[in-house]
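Long-time lurker, finally posting.

We've been working with Large-conductance mechanosensitive channel (Lachnoclostridium phytofermentans) and I want a structural starting point before designing mutants. I don't trust myself to interpret raw outputs, so I'm hoping someone here can both generate the structure tokens and explain anything notable. Sequence follows.
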Amino acid sequence: MKKFLKEFREFALKGNVMNLAVGVIIGSAFQGIVTSLTDNILSPIIGLFTRQNFDSLQLNIFGITLRYGAFITALINFVIMAFVVFLLVKGMNRILSFDDKRKKVEVKPTEKDCPYCMTKININASRCPHCTSQLETIAINEEDIAR
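Top reply, 14 upvotes:
Generated this for you. Predicted structure of Large-conductance mechanosensitive channel:
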């Protein structure tokens, strides 16, 4: 039992789990803000066109009450939350791509293929260590590179 509790404690205190917990708490708080926005601001504005509280719109069919106004309000909540999450992910991807561009440094090749045995060898080698073939050294002029 002690081993189980120790493993659980190590798992729960890892950075990823703590970050997830903070994200869920902030997400639920943000959901309250979005719900308040739709219930207290957007629904009354839409209600101006329907001449009643938008959340109270309902349809009675065969004794069943369908509260379609509350459903549309929940749908608006979802769209707003999805849009905000999309913007956050897009922003994070942009920030991460800036870091990736900085990390990409032009790396000069350190190996080449032997034209005879096709094994990888040091770029400065004049003889292949695998097949012992004499390799041609190619002199590259800077003028050729500029062209």
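Before you design anything, note these points.
The chain has two domains: 2-103, 108-147.
Residues 139-147 have pLDDT under 50 and may be disordered.
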